[in-house]
Amino acid sequence: MILYRYLVREHAAPFLFGLSLIVFVFTMNLFFQTLGRIAGKGLPILTILEYYGLSLAWILALAVPMAVLISTVSAFGRMAADSEITALRASGISPRQLIQPVLIVGVLVALWVAWFNNYVLPDMNHRTKLLQIDIRKKKPTMIIEPNIYNFDIPNYIMLARGVDRTTSELNEVTIYDEHNPDIKTTIAAKSGKLGFIESAESIVMTLSDGEIHRPTVRESESYEYTVFDSAQFRIKMPGLALKRGTKGWRGDRELSVRELMDRVNELKLKDSKINTKQIAAFMVEIHKKFSIPVACIVFVLLGAPLGMLSHKGGMGVSGSVSLLFFTVYWALITNGEKLAERGIMSPGWSMWMANIILSVFGLWFLWIVGRRTSFPGIHSIKHFFSKRFSGR
Q1: Dihedral angle at the C-alpha atoms of 96, 372, 298, 378, nearest 10 degrees?
Q2: Other CB atoms within 10 Å distance of the CB of residue 120
Q3: Residue 38: which of 130, 135, 167, 158 has the closest Cα?
């Protein structure tokens, strides 16, 4: 029991450090990705903080399994480097016995992540979407950047030479209407203004001093030319009427397992053959809610023997090894999702394939540790990371 407490305690510090570091890196990455769309738009600081606060939900869902892998490799690597693993094995304690308490904690963490992914994450994703809609209502020009083509409005491409965030006014506006591929309409105006009609779920563009160019159907070389002093265009945008705090329509990543199953059953009752792609997307999301939490257990199974074989307890080496395997894991998950949505692979196999493959590797590494042999190439890997992080 004392040994079990010691093993768990050895994992606590690297887990918390790894979790903090991963959350920080992901948050900074999100910040720089959304800097142009969120910061500098005249939004209240509390609204900006709320947006990033809500985004922490999906960051945590990914960061916790990664932190489990980092802490496991780091803790067992440090113990191996200090010859503690050798001493414990000499006293009759096998590697499997050393992993048992950490595996139990991994199961508990997996259960928490499963609960989080099913009950907390969908609501946070939904609240993030509603916040984004609310921001666009109050700051319509937030979606427009000067001198950059904008594709956010369905079937329209918009270009504005000047944008006033305070008044929502645009200068030198060009709009390409692509509803009909055969008849592409171009609208140009010296000035314009964006607004929303919430009840009609529409964006309103009020343009001044402009002209409309529209090719005729019969003669492709000729077109209609209309000049206007002022004109108003309404563009339907479903979802704009959603209000924060209301349930509204939810996407697949904003639903719990029960709600996803309800959607699947509804689609099957209508016509499962027609709705195959949508059903696959929902089923992928259901399996993902369980496969990612189970990765916490898989990463213990993988990280423990890797740490024992590496004999390195530093965060640099353990973090790099963990990043390598998590990249492989995430590549299998994302590509599996694409294959499932195309109907090439079943949703279940696409989401569990990564766990199965890495579990096999973990058991193999554990077998190698049990035989007290070295993993082929482990010294080359250690030498590579030592050079990288020692600066030699």
Answers
A1: 160
A2: 14
A3: 135
> What's the chain's average pLDDT?
82
- The secondary structure of 255-294, three-state, reads CCHHHHHHHHHHHHHHHCCCCHHHHHHHHHHHHHHHHHHH
What's the whole-model pTM score?
A: 0.73
Q: Are 20 and 100 in contact (CB under 8 A)?
A: no
Instruction: Find where tokens 């709320």 sit.
Output: 50
CA atoms within 13 A of residue 345's CA, in its CB half-sphere: 17
| Pair of tokens at residue 376 | 């082929």
Instruction: Write the DSSP assignment of 59-115 as a string of letters.
Output: HHHHHHHHHHHHHHHHHHHHHHHTTHHHHHHHTT--HHHHHHHHHHHHHHHHHHHHH
Residues of the chain below pLDDT 70? 36-37, 39-42, 136-143, 165, 181, 198-201, 216-222, 237-249, 272-274, 311-316, 372-392
Three-state SS at 251: coil
Q: What crossing angle do the helices spanning 276-310 and 347-370 adopt, rounded to 10°?
A: 10
- The domain ranges of the chain are 2-136+270-390, 154-236
DSSP 3-state of 225: strand
Between CA 211 and CA 220, with CA 217 as vertex, the angle to 5 degrees is 80
Cα gap 279→348, rounded to integer Å: 12
pLDDT digits over 309-347, tens only?
A: 876 656 667 778 888 898 999 999 999 988 988 888 999
Nearby residues of 215 by Cβ (< 8 Å), 6 or more positions away: 183, 184, 222, 223, 224
